[in-house]
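re: the backbone from monday

yeah here it is again, tokenized this time
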């Protein structure tokens, strides 16, 4: 059902002449796609072409493109996957210190009143803009927390923990704009685990259990499964994950967001690879071509 080499071939087909990757195969490559490609290849046991990938990132550094938290996170995590020393630049240190002391990432709960049609609150399941907003509630704070640890920059961990815990809702999930969200819940648990403070298992589980039957897209399944992994509790059924991923498979070897339609991308292919590798480790899942 799942051919490891076919997935590898799909990913490498998106490796471009500037050294990076982009799912549409059009220059320039993207940092996000490069990160997902490298991570997927390593999970699959393949060896990414490190020299060309490093060249891509160094050109981005020379061009001044690594100027925000997301860019630095993608560069750092790609280097870590490739076992390359992290760049020791004052500008990156200063960026992290600035973000740490900024109020932007530590915004307390706020309820937005948005007219229907502006962002489309009543079309959440299909509105990409709204989905991106919700996913981004704690994503950058997760990036910052991990980077501060990676670059050995001291910070008040308890303040981060207190902020994250303040975003937990009565249903056990986390979210600060409207209701609890799977993405925000995952990033909350991820941050807490990074800081060795993930002690909310019993209170979060009811929310995650409720969402087992509301998985619409591949990212939902990924956030749900990864949240359960962080809590060290029984997870989504083996067969359900296999069936869901199989329905997202496309003829080119990649995977799309939806079981019913859509094109394959490197991001959604990574989600599937991560899910299947966990099954391989814990449930004796075997790739079709091995």
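seq for it, each position gets an aa:
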């Amino acid at each position: 059902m799942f051919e490891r080499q076919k997935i590898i071939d799909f990913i490498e087909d998106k490796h471009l002449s500037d050294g990076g990757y982009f799912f549409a195969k059009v220059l320039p490559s993207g940092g996000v796609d490069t990160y997902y490609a490298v991570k997927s290849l390593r999970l699959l046991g393949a060896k990414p072409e490190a020299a060309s990938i490093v060249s891509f990132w160094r050109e981005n550094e020379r061009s001044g493109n690594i100027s925000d938290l997301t860019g630095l996170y993608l560069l750092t995590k790609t280097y870590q996957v490739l076992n390359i020393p992290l760049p020791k630049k004052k500008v990156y240190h200063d960026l992290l210190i600035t973000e740490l002391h900024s109020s932007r990432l530590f915004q307390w709960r706020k309820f937005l009143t948005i007219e229907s049609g502006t962002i489309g609150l009543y079309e959440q399941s299909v509105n990409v803009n709204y989905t991106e907003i919700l996913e981004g509630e704690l994503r950058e704070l997760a990036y910052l927390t991990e980077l501060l640890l990676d670059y050995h920059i001291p910070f008040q961990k308890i303040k981060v923990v207190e902020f994250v815990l303040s975003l937990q809702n009565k249903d056990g999930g986390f979210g600060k704009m409207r209701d609890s969200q799977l993405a925000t819940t995952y990033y909350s648990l991820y941050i807490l685990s990074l800081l060795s403070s993930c002690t909310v298992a019993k209170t979060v589980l009811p929310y995650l259990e409720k969402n087992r039957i509301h998985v619409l897209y591949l990212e939902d399944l990924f956030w749900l499964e990864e949240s359960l992994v962080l809590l060290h509790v029984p997870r989504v059924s083996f067969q359900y994950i296999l069936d869901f991923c199989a329905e997202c498979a496309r003829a080119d070897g990649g995977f799309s967001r939806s079981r019913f339609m859509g094109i394959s991308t490197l991001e959604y292919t990574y989600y599937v690879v991560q899910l299947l590798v966990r099954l391989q480790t814990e449930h004796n899942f075997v790739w079709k071509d091995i």
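The mean pLDDT is 88. The chain has twelve helices and no strands.
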